[in-house]
Amino acid sequence: RSTGTYLAKLLGRFATLVELAGQLVVVRTDPGNASPVAEALDHLAWSEVVGTLAGDNTVFVACKSGPAARRVAGRLAQLRKGSA
Q1: What whole-number distance in Å separates Cα of residue 64 and Cα of residue 81?
Q2: The model's pTM
Q3: 1, 47, 60, 74: which is deepest, by most CB within 10 A?
Q4: Could you give the strand order of the β-sheet that contains 15-21, starting from the edge strand earlier in sequence?
Q5: Is-contact 29 7, C-beta < 8 A?
Q6: What string of DSSP letters covers 21-50?
């Protein structure tokens, strides 16, 4: 299966919020599920993304710019919605 499909399934199952915060995209997950979401994002290697940082239930996605973060947030929201 593709990483994009895997990420969509993870987001649909575990993500509770995708929110834009300047050059960051914040993805909230159910407890204990941030790390697999961040790992899937890292493997996608989107050009807008500089890196990810995962805690227990939150992933920070650092983007190259505000517009890049808006694109990433939109993509993640669509993936999440499309898998629900």
Answers
A1: 24
A2: 0.88
A3: 60
A4: 15-21, 24-29, 58-63, 49-54
A5: no
A6: ETTEEEEEESTT-HHHHHHHHHHH--TTEE
One pLDDT digit (tens) per residue for the chain, 84 residues: 577 788 778 888 888 999 999 999 999 999 999 999 999 889 888 999 999 999 999 999 999 999 999 999 999 988 888 765
Place of tokens 């517009």: 67
Strands 58-63 and 15-21: unpaired
16 neighbors 30 (Cβ within 8 angstroms)? yes
Contact 77, 8 (CB under 8 A): no
- For residues 69 and 63, the answer to whether their CB atoms sit within 8 Å is yes
Place of tokens 């993805």: 27
Query: Which residue type, as a one-letter code, is found at position 37?
Result: V
Give the separation between CA 17 and CA 21, rounded to whole angstroms: 12
